[in-house]
Amino acid sequence: MAADRDFSDELEDWLKGDTPKTVGALSEEFEERAFAVTILLLMFPSALPIPTGGITHVLEFFAIIVALQMVAGRTTLWLPKRFAQRELGASMTEKAVPFISRRIRWFEKYSAPRLAGLFDQRWFIRIIGLVILVFTLGAIIAPPFSGLDTLPALGIVIICLAIVLGDILMFVIGAVIGAGGIALILTVGAAIAHFLRNLF
User: Fold this and answer.
1) Which long-range contacts (CB under 8 A, 24 or more apart) does 143-150 make?
2) What pLDDT, in 10s, does the model give residues 64-98?
3) Residues near 36 by Cβ (< 8 Å), separated by ≥ 6?
4) CA distances from 78 to 19, 149, 187 (A)
5) pLDDT given at position 2
6) What is the C-alpha separation between 24 and 104, in angstroms, rounded?
7) Which residues contact 133 (CB under 8 A, 6 or more apart)?
């Protein structure tokens, strides 16, 4: 499933092209990789250890919609019309996406096609969709302002890159990071609940 050209180059070419800079146009550009590319962009802000003003929860909601379609085995991505036609905006196309592209280049240096054929199997994509769904829900339930949503979101970003680059090792790394983040969220959440029970 890995492309002949670097994914980062394709992403930058799309940004420089004349096509509308909407979520729908982006998914059409990358066709069979649309699920992974869309979720990657939706979850990338959550993977950064910076304040986002709550916008990440909106993006995570749409990531869940995409992940559910992966679990259902859809081959084409469906997005709500209003969301699909929404312009990404100057801050996204001029700052965020180029920033993401530079980070992707770092992963591309160390990635190689490993068991790439797995990512062409419908059953495996369904499993990946389920993993992404669980990690996204974990990011949503993370205690507010704790920064704990970063790890499951980072795991999702790496898993999406694994799909695009056809690298099972990268998938495993993303799964381990995301699972570690979920475990940390549950542990901290249990500690907070215990503290509140004792307090009141």
Assistant:
1) 143/185, 143/188, 143/189, 143/192, 146/188, 147/49, 148/181, 148/184, 148/185, 148/188, 149/46, 149/56, 149/181, 149/185, 150/46, 150/47, 150/48, 150/49, 150/181
2) 999 999 999 998 888 888 878 877 766 666 677 77
3) 160, 161, 163, 164
4) 19, 26, 35
5) 43
6) 21
7) 64, 67, 68, 71
Instruction: State the pLDDT at residue 51.
Output: 58
Count Cβ atoms below 10 Å from residue 179 Cβ, excluding itself.
17
Q: Which helix (H) or strand (E) holds 168?
A: helix 168-199
CA nearest to 46, candidates 121, 172, 163, 158: 158
As given in the structure block, the two tokens for residue 200 are 């009141």
Residue 148 CB partners (closer than 8 Å, separation 6+): 142, 181, 184, 185, 188
Strand partners, 114: 167
48: its two tokens? 């950064």
Average pLDDT, the chain: 84
How many CB atoms are located within 10 Å of the residue 27 CB? 21
Look at residues 48, 47, 43, 44 and name the one whose alpha carbon lies nearest to residue 133: 43
For the chain, helix (H) and strand (E) counts, in that order, are 10, 0
Beta bridge pairs of residue 22: 87
- Calculate mean pLDDT across residues 159-173: 94
